[in-house]
Design brief:
26% helix; elongated; alpha+beta; Alpha-Beta Plaits; 3 helices; two-stranded antiparallel sheet; four-stranded antiparallel beta sheet
Length: 95
């Protein structure tokens, strides 16, 4: 699977920006089957940075109802990526 297919999107949330401000971190939404090694290789290939550490969290999809029909949202995974000092990923550089 390609690097672009593993990384779904950066997570721009209040908690994610606070984590990024404290240290040199970035938060991404990734595919549930992605491993820490493949996430590290994908981030290094896409953004040309050095990744020191990857931490992941799995989230189960919530149950949703519409009338009598019960469905589920998709499971997803969050990756906290620690970058080498001096490296930076800018998400909104062109604004």
């Amino acid at each position: 699977m390609s690097a672009e297919a593993l990384i779904i999107a950066p997570l721009i949330t209040e908690k994610g920006t606070a984590v990024g401000a404290q240290g040199n971190h970035a938060v991404f939404k990734v595919r549930p089957e992605a491993t820490k090694d493949t996430i590290r290789l994908a981030i290094e290939a896409m953004f040309k940075v050095t990744v020191l550490r990857v931490r992941t969290s799995n989230f189960l999809g919530k149950e949703r109802r519409r009338g009598r029909t019960i469905g589920h949202k998709a499971n997803w995974k969050k990756a906290y990526v620690t970058l080498k000092a001096g490296d930076k990923i800018e998400f909104f550089e062109g604004l």
